Each structure stands twice: as C-alpha cells, then as structure tokens.
C-alpha cells in the first residue's frame, strides 16, 4: 500500500495536506493490518486487504 | 461432513478443559423451543418454487406474532415499502414467494433465541449484525455467481448459529471460551476447539439438522471454516467468503472483529474481479442498516 504522497516529498518536507493524507493512509493501513492479523499471509488475503483498503480510502475521498 | 478438521495451523493442543460431546449438544438442542410449524414447513420448502402463495399467506396468517413481525419488517426501509403493506397477502404479492419465505424464516430464527438468556460478555447485537452482514454478502456473491440468492442469504444468516446454542444451553462453557480468547490471541473458532473440543460450526450443523434445513444449508453452516477438509458445494464457498468479507468490513460494530483464515482455493474459484468486490462492498453497506431493522423488530 505505497502512498502516492511519498513521491511528493521534497527534501523530507511535506505540505500539511500531503502529510495529513499520508498519516491517514498509514492509520487505515494499520487498522487493517490489526483486523487481518490472524487471517494468514496468503496472496488472496493480501488481495482482499488491499481491496478493503481501496474501498475505505475511496469512501474518504 | 467433517466439521472438526483444522483450517488454522497451530501446535498440537492439550485436551479441552471443558469438553462437550456432540450427543450432549444434540440432547440440549432438543430442549430448545420449537420453531412455529409454518416456519418448519417453509424451511422444508426451500428451493421449491411451486408453492401455492395463497396457501402460504394463509398459513403465515395463522401465526399473529409472525404476521406482526413480518409487517414491521416489510414496512421497514430495507424493502422500501414504508407504510404501504398492511396484510400478509400484500407482503406475498409485493415481495414475492422467495422474499417472503426468507423474511419469515429470518423473523422466526432471530426471535427464537432470547437476549434475556444473555451471557455476560456475549453481545447479541454484534452477533446478529455480523450474521446479517454475512447474509447480505452471501446474497450479493450468489447473484453474481448465478447461485440461489435465497439459500445464500439463509445460510449466511445461520452460519454462526451454533454460538447461540452455547449461549442458551451451555453458558458456563461459553464463558470459558470467552475467557480463553481474552487470554490467548486467537479466533473464536480456535478458542472453542481448545476449550470445549468442538466448534460453533459443528454445533450449528446439529441445530440446522434439528430444524430440518436442506442439506446444502446444513453443509454451509458445518463447513464454513473447514473448506480444505471436506468436499463442499459452491454455496459453502460463498458463505465462507461472505463471512470473511463481513469481518473485513467490520459490520458487527461490536468487539474487535478479527478476520478469519481465508481459503485461497475458494477465493480463486469465485472468478470475480476487483470491480465486482468493490460493488459488493458498496451494495452490502448500503443495505445493511435497513436489513438490521429485521433484527430489532
């Protein structure tokens, strides 16, 4: 779940909105990792987790 | 149907501390209040599209408590008919046979376990919300896979029903399972197997057999966590994936809803693409709160 905002870092300084988006993405990613922590580490599980991430992120936008 | 096969890799565990034997469970299930006779008839008619709808309405109409509940649900936002349905005949005409059968069964089954028998720490509301979320997911998956939506919804709603047998008949065992889960970082399923030696899937199979549900639904309840271990129908695969998605979307809104182990082979066999799943997530969440009114009426 690489953040698109990573590419916008300039010399380690990020504008507030980019930093905020990056933090939100990281928070959502952590929530899902916690939720899926006993779900096994298969390609299918990772695919589902990524789809839920995309869905939740899409709802936020 | 082998309901005791492992799907979660783990170390060999010691003998269950409060072992329950299946005959003991079956004996207690026999002491639970029966479902209304009309519901038993509806259950046995699942899959039969040739029922006389007038006869169906007449039979349902003989159970006034059921009629009242069905009218409340039919007039809820889930069906979008607010205030327009005033008799059971209207419900049958407007919603159609399959919806009425599903609605009547859901109304009867959700009302058959009273939250007055609560076990401290067991959240009835979260239980039914997760069950309803799984039912909606299963129905959405079934539609895309051209399987019976009615059977998928029913099997999804019932998939964890074995837990309610523990609440009603074995509260001390359930309390021990919850205590184990609180002290071990594990899924419900693993806590049940460790403490009582059987799991809610096996107990649910016994209850759905007692209620005379068709074998396809009994199998889905029995095997929704054990797909690698038993021959299973596409419906069981759908219920398994629906259960996992309902956990992943955190529809129960209760205690932390950990996602269980996903069977990769079943996931791959669905042959759905990301766009389908995104549509299913949205569809389920849109319907969810309205459908949950079915649980509170």
In brief:
The complex is a heterodimer of chains A (61) and B (297). Chain A has 61 residues and is an all-alpha fold.
What's the arrangement of secondary structure elements?
The complex is a heterodimer of chains A (about 60) and B (about 300).
Chain A lengths: L15 H20 L7 H18 L1
Helix pairs in contact in A: 1-2
Chain B lengths: L21 H8 L7 H8 L8 H9 L2 H11 L13 H8 L1 H15 L12 H22 L3 H10 L3 H8 L1 H13 L4 H8 L4 H11 L4 H9 L10 H15 L15 H6 L4 H23 L1
Helix pairs in contact in B: 1-12, 3-5, 4-6, 5-6, 6-8, 7-8, 7-14, 7-16, 8-13, 8-14, 9-12, 10-11, 12-13, 13-14
Written overview of the protein:
The complex is a heterodimer of chains A (61) and B (297). Chain A is mainly alpha-helical and 61 residues long. In chain A, 62% of the residues lie in helices and 0% in strands. Chain B has 297 residues and is mainly alpha-helical. Helices cover 62% and strands 0% of the residues of chain B. At the A-B interface, helix 2 of A face helix 14, helix 15 and helix 16 of B.
Structural class of chain A: mainly alpha
**Global mean pLDDT of chain A:** 84
Biggest protein-protein contact in the assembly: A-B, 19 and 24 residues
- Looking at how many chains there are and whether they match, the oligomeric state comes to heterodimer
**Number of extended strands of chain A:** 0
Number of helices of chain B: 16
Strand content of chain B: under 5%
Spans of chain B of 5+ residues with little confidence (pLDDT < 50)? 1-7
Strand content of chain A: under 5%
Task: Report, as a whole number of angstroms, the end-to-end distance of chain B.
Answer: 35 Å
Order of helices and strands of chain B: HHHHHHHHHHHHHHHH
């Amino acid at each position: 779940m690489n953040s698109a905002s990573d590419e916008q870092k300039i010399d380690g300084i990020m504008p507030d909105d980019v930093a905020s988006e990056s933090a939100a993405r990281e928070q959502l990613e952590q929530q899902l990792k916690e939720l899926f922590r006993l779900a096994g580490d298969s390609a299918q599980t990772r695919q589902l987790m990524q789809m839920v991430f995309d869905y939740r992120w899409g709802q936020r936008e | 149907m082998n309901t005791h096969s492992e799907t979660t890799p783990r170390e060999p565990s010691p003998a269950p501390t409060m072992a329950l034997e299946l005959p003991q469970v079956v004996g207690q299930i026999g002491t639970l209040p029966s479902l209304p006779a009309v519901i038993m008839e509806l259950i046995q008619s699942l899959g039969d599209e040739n029922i006389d709808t007038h006869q169906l309405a007449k039979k349902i109409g003989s159970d006034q408590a059921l009629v009242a509940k069905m009218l409340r649900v039919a007039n809820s936002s889930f069906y979008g008919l607010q205030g327009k349905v005033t008799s059971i005949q209207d419900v049958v005409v407007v919603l159609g046979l399959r919806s009425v059968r599903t609605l009547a069964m859901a109304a009867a089954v959700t009302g058959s376990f009273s939250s007055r028998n609560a076990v401290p720490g067991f959240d009835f509301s979260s239980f039914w919300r997760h069950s309803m979320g799984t039912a909606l997911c299963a129905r959405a998956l079934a539609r895309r896979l051209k399987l019976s939506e009615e059977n998928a919804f029913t099997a999804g709603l019932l998939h964890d029903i074995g837990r309610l047998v523990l609440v009603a008949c074995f509260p001390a065992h359930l309390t021990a399972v919850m205590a184990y889960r609180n002290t071990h970082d594990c899924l419900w399923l693993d806590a049940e197997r460790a403490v009582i030696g059987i799991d809610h899937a096996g107990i649910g199979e016994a209850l759905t057999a007692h209620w005379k549900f068709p074998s396809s639904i009994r199998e889905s309840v029995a095997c929704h966590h054990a797909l690698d271990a038993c021959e299973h129908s596409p419906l069981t695969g759908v219920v398994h994936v629906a259960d996992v998605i309902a956990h992943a979307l955190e529809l129960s809104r209760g205690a932390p809803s950990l996602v269980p182990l996903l069977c990769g082979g079943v996931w791959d066999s669905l042959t759905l693409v990301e766009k389908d799943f995104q549509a299913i997530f949205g569809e389920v969440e849109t319907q969810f709160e309205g459908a949950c009114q079915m649980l509170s009426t």
